């Protein structure tokens, strides 16, 4: 600064001189320095500047910009881009937004320092997986007609279930959530079916019937007959009563069905203390060690009921084709043969197919006392 400029600045301090710096190869723009001037009470003159007031206030201009984009995996924009500016070499942070039904799956071109004059960072979000929807298909006896269906999808995604296409069964009832949207909690859809040839059914009966003659029993109403007849004058508990489309009425005596024509209903039945209708008598052929196995022989994809004792109360269910262990068997006074299974439930012999012992069952046969 020459003498004239200094003199001019002295009489007019509001005009501050600047110095033109030489421009080099690595030149970076620097803000102009301006001293802090304190006005006097008269507003016509200025107080003298102390040494502490001579420190200039500087601000470095940003020379690096980062654009942060928020995309879905399909390229949809979830929010407006974020712009972060700073000086190269300086650290920075970006905002990881949270979006409903989405989670951050990956970040592309991520870096935590300003390196380039311009850079782009992409945050990619994926749909949040939802809890499954489980679909059950039951018949009137709560037997599964097929394996449960598991539907999976994304949160908020639409789902739709369908009934089974069957010539034997028709839909009787379905829960109200047969269609809907996947959510954070598991949903269960239940379809109930009835045999097409059944007009109506009364379930959970507690009465008894007496057979007035030897009666052929069936696996299902109008279905396949079982090998042995049920003896005359035997008393059976009734669990269900149905009528078929041919107006024939059937009783469910526990996984075996008989027509009502040759039965006599007993409302209150108590077995006499002095008479034992089903007194067990044992024979060697019916005594099976715990290692003897059998296959449940019923109806494919159907379940079979077991009992707490011969002609007792219902216990568990077994699937057709399931392999079970037999403890021993008994022959009752009515010549019916029952096998006790490993879980201490009972099943009649015509529902089991014994497997050959061969080399897999070295345990010798033991007589049950």
UniProtKB/TrEMBL annotation:
The keyword Repeat applies. It holds the Pfam family MucBP. It comes from the Bacteria. Residues 66-125, 132-194 form the MucBP domain. The keyword Repeat applies. Keywords: Repeat. InterPro entries: MucBP_dom (IPR009459). This is MucBP domain-containing protein. It comes from Loigolactobacillus binensis.
């Amino acid at each position: 600064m020459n003498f004239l400029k200094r003199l001019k600045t002295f009489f007019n301090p509001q005009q501050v001189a600047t110095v033109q710096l030489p421009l080099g190869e690595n030149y970076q723009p620097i803000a102009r320095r301006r001293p802090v001037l304190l006005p006097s009470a008269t507003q016509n003159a200025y107080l003298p500047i102390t040494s502490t007031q001579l420190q200039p206030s500087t601000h470095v201009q940003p020379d690096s910009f980062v654009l942060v984009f928020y995309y879905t995996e399909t390229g949809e924009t979830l929010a407006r881009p974020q712009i972060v500016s700073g000086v190269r070499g300086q650290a920075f942070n970006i905002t990881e937004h949270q979006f409903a039904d989405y989670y951050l799956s990956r970040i592309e071109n991520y870096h935590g320092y300003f390196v380039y004059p311009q850079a782009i960072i992409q945050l990619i979000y994926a749909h949040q997986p939802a809890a499954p929807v489980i679909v059950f298909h039951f018949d009137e006896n709560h037997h599964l007609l097929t394996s449960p269906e598991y539907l999976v999808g994304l949160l908020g995604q639409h789902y739709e279930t369908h009934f089974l296409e069957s010539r034997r069964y028709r839909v009787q009832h379905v829960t109200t959530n047969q269609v809907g949207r996947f959510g954070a909690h598991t949903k269960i859809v239940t379809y109930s079916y009835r045999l097409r040839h059944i007009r109506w059914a009364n379930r959970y009966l507690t009465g008894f019937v007496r057979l007035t003659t030897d009666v052929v029993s069936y696996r299902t109403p109008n279905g396949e007959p079982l090998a042995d007849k049920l003896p005359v004058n035997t008393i059976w508990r009734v669990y269900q009563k149905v009528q078929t489309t041919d107006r024939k009425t059937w009783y469910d005596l526990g996984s075996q069905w008989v027509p009502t024509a040759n039965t006599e209903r007993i409302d209150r039945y108590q077995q006499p203390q002095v008479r034992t209708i089903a007194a067990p008598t044992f024979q060697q052929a019916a005594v099976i060690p715990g290692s003897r196995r059998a296959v449940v022989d019923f109806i494919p994809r159907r379940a079979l009921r077991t009992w707490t004792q011969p002609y007792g109360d219902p216990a568990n269910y077994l699937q057709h084709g399931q392999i079970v262990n037999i403890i021993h068997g008994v022959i009752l006074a009515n010549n019916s043969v029952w096998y006790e299974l490993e879980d201490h439930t009972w099943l009649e012999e015509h529902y089991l197919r014994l497997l050959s012992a061969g080399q897999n069952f070295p345990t010798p046969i033991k007589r049950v006392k």
